[in-house]
């Protein structure tokens, strides 16, 4: 899935545009990432460039050459605690924030076992690596994948248990997979040796997306959960075994990708699914038809549930009913935006204005399960309501006549019955109705509904 704007091309990295959302999702989740591709396809360059752009304390190890002492340093007795300490060097892993294990498929079995805890638990020798955020690895296709086995002699399939610890496995494109522009950029030596620096833009975006991701983890969108549980069941039924552990990794990756991409798209979900199948790391290619069929069935099930919720939202007769449905039944900003857009497009104008007026302050503060598109949609209607008062006199609007607007007396009577903040809110809304020639069937009911919405938002501490 191509992003509207690339955030890795400015780093001088080319050939990964189609999988950029997946790569950025891995940065958001901080789950392990494995790149698989032929030699010279930019795997190592990509990961080292990301570490530079994010300003990380980075370690780059060649797994085929690494010794255990390279990782931990030299052991010496801890006389105070009666244990062992390690003498650190600039290459040891203890202070690293990101680690790249290159050539992991050429790693000796004993080192694979030691790296297992690093990838899975952020631990070495049972000791937690407190600063470590990112665990990355790169490998050539294992020998069983290649027609010319001698080219990658020594690149062996990963142990399935180790491969299953990588949340996302991304293929790097070779020359024939690059566009003409990408080939030209890759061949150009002009940027060689330059640091990958975008002025901190990517670092800021990752921090922003990461916070949204953490906020949504405890209430993961039901659409994503419905898709994950369905597609995992479908794949296992089709003979493509997916572990229960991986179901959680897939959910995390889908959530992060939806935040990075700005929406839930079928193309995006399929891409994350393809990059979540660990089988390619041990030389097995899952049947394309089975994966596609599993995806389509899961997408349809999740979409049906989404449509059912939007129908429930639209069916609520009162504004406060719609707000309750939004707060209690929707935990996906994308879904919330879809419901808001549908109501604003098809609902009566007096009600859509009242709902926008009631919800916009909380939505603008990020307190509602609505994405940026939904907030913008509410703002288009709500902003004029907040600013209309005092901009125009009713006499001027009536072409110079001294006759009051026909509905003014009705509104004045309602305003006289109110007190406190309700008066100001009602006056703003009623003035907007007058200016825009909107005649609500029951303005008193709408005002009461807005007040109920405000009270509910206050009760939930959302305003």
Q: Which radius of gyration do the C-alpha atoms yield?
A: 28 Å
Helical percentage: 40-55%
Q: Can you tell me the residue ranges where pLDDT is under 50 for at least 5 consecutive residues?
A: 145-150
Gap between N and C termini:
37 Å
Reading off the top of the CATH hierarchy, the class of the largest domain is best stated as: Alpha Beta
How would you sum up the major sheet? 5 strands, parallel
What spatial form do the alpha-carbon principal axes imply? elongated
Number of helices: 19
Per DSSP E runs of 2 or more residues, the count of β-strands stands at 9
Mean pLDDT equals: 88
Could you name the CATH topology of the largest domain?
A: Rossmann fold
* CATH homology superfamily of the largest domain: P-loop containing nucleotide triphosphate hydrolases
Please characterize this protein's 3D structure.
The protein has 463 residues and is an alpha/beta fold. It has two domains: 9-191 and 198-294, 3-Layer(aba) Sandwich (Rossmann fold); 316-459, no CATH class. Helix content is 52%, strand content 8%. The protein has helices at residues 20-29, 43-53, 68-72, 109-121, 160-163, 180-187, 201-217, 222-237, 244-261, 266-274, 288-315, 319-329, 333-346, 349-364, 372-387, 394-397, 408-416, 421-435, 443-459; strands spanning 33-36, 58-62, 74-78, 83-87, 98-102, 123-124, 127-128, 134-139, 168-171. The model is unreliable at 145-150 (pLDDT under 50).
């Amino acid at each position: 899935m191509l992003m509207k704007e690339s955030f890795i091309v400015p780093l001088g990295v080319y050939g990964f545009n189609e999988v950029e959302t997946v790569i950025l999702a891995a940065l958001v989740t901080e789950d392990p990432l494995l790149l698989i591709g032929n030699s010279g396809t930019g795997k190592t360059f990509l990961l080292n460039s990301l570490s530079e752009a994010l300003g990380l304390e980075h370690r780059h190890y060649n797994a085929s050459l690494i010794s255990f002492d390279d990782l931990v340093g030299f052991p010496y007795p801890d006389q105070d605690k009666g244990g062992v300490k390690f003498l650190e060097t600039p290459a040891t892993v203890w202070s690293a924030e990101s680690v790249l294990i290159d050539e992991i498929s050429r790693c000796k079995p004993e080192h694979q076992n030691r790296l297992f805890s690093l990838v899975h638990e952020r631990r070495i020798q049972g000791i937690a690596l407190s600063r470590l955020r990112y665990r990355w690895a790169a490998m050539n296709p294992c020998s069983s994948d290649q027609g010319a086995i001698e080219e990658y002699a020594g690149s062996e399939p990963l142990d399935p248990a180790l491969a299953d610890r990588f949340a996302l496995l991304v293929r790097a494109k070779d020359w024939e997979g690059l566009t003409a522009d990408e080939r030209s950029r890759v061949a150009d030596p002009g940027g060689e040796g330059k640091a990958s620096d975008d002025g901190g833009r990517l670092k800021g975006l990752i921090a922003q997306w990461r916070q949204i991701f953490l906020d949504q983890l405890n209430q993961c969108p039901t659409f994503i959960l419905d898709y994950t549980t369905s597609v995992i069941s479908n794949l296992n039924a089709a003979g493509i075994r997916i572990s229960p552990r991986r179901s959680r990794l897939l959910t995390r990756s889908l959530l992060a990708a939806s935040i990075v991409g700005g929406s839930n798209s079928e193309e995006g979900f399929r891409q994350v699914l393809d990059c979540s199948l660990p089988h390619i790391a041990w030389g097995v290619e899952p049947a394309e038809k089975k994966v596609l069929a599993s995806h389509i069935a899961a997408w349809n099930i999740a979409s049906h549930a989404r449509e059912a919720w939007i129908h429930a939202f639209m069916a609520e007769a009162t504004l406060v009913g719609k707000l309750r449905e939004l707060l209690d039944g929707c935990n996906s900003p994308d879904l919330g935006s879809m419901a808001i857009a549908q109501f604003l497009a098809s609902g009566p104008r007096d009600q859509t204005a009242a709902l926008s007026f009631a919800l916009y302050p909380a939505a603008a503060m990020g307190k509602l399960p609505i994405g940026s598109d939904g907030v913008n949609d509410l703002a288009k209607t709500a902003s004029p309501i907040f600013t209309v008062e005092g901009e125009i006199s009713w006499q001027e609007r009536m072409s110079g006549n001294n006759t009051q607007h026909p509905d003014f007396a009705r509104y004045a009577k309602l305003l006289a019955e109110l007190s406190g903040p309700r008066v100001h809110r009602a006056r703003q809304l009623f003035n907007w109705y007058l200016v825009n020639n909107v005649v609500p069937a029951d303005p008193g009911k709408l005002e009461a509904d807005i007040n109920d919405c405000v009270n509910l938002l206050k009760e939930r501490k959302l305003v």
